[in-house]
Amino acid sequence: MGNTRHLLNLALIGFMGAGKTSVGRLVADQLHFDYLDTDEMIQSRTARTIADIFKKDGEPAFRKLEQQLVSELAARKRTVIATGGGLPTDPVNLASLKTHALIVCLWASPEKIWERVRNQTHRPLLCDPNPKLKIRELLAAREPFYRQADVLINTDLRSAREAAQQVVHQFKFAQSGRQ
Ligand code: S3P
């Protein structure tokens, strides 16, 4: 890690259904940090759903909103930031998060992701005639970005509680190494 990093926050990245929201809330509780979800922030700021933004304005407009939000997050302290699944595919976003947060990627296999998201309907990118294939393709395309995290935690065989414990452990370890 470079010298300019300050691990004031913890950012969770990873594919849809990897567990960022449930794990993130548990981690925030355990660390006594605030919890912030980039999708929720965008929805409350625009007073629109993500699905509506995708449908009426298109994905690039949504990505701009994400980038704007990420640039503001550098001012946060003691915050667990759960990010939308596509947010770290913009290198500007990843670089910005890295200046103030430890980046933890929650990883899950395409099979596990499908199992977790199959009954949910709010994600526009998965409203596809072949969502299983879409998951495989998107995950393969995004893997190089997710791998740029400081820590990778496989959630396939871990409960949210177990994954949260790992995240907290890694965060404390990373912080202690920088004192
Ligand atoms: C997206 C993931 C979603 C949301 C949007 C796009 C993606 O967030 O940001 O639907 O590109 O993977 P979650 O990962 O929280 O589902």
Commentary on this structure:
With 179 residues, the chain is of the alpha/beta class. Helix content is 53%, strand content 13%. It is built from 8 helices and 5 strands. The protein has helices at residues 20-31, 38-46, 50-57, 59-73, 91-100, 110-117, 131-146, 160-176; strands at 9-13, 34-37, 79-82, 101-107, 151-154. A 5-stranded parallel sheet has the order 2-3-1-4-5. Helix 1 (20-31) packs across helix 8, helix 2 (38-46) packs across helix 4 and helix 3 packs across helix 4 (59-73). The mean pLDDT is 94. Residues 16, 20, 39, 50, 84-86, 123-125 line the site of shikimate-3-phosphate.
Strand percent estimate: 5-15%
* DSSP strand tally: 5
Secondary-structure-derived class? alpha/beta
- Unreliable stretches (pLDDT < 50, length at least 5) are none
Rg from Cα = 16 Å
Alpha plus pi helix count: 8
Question: For the largest beta sheet, what order do the strands appear in spatially?
Answer: 2-3-1-4-5
Mean pLDDT: 94
Shape: globular
Hetero groups in this structure are:
shikimate-3-phosphate
Elements, N to C (H/E) = EHEHHHEHEHHEH
* Head-to-tail CA distance between termini: 13 Å
Major sheet summary line = 5 strands, parallel
Helix fraction by DSSP (H/I, runs of at least 4) = 40-55%
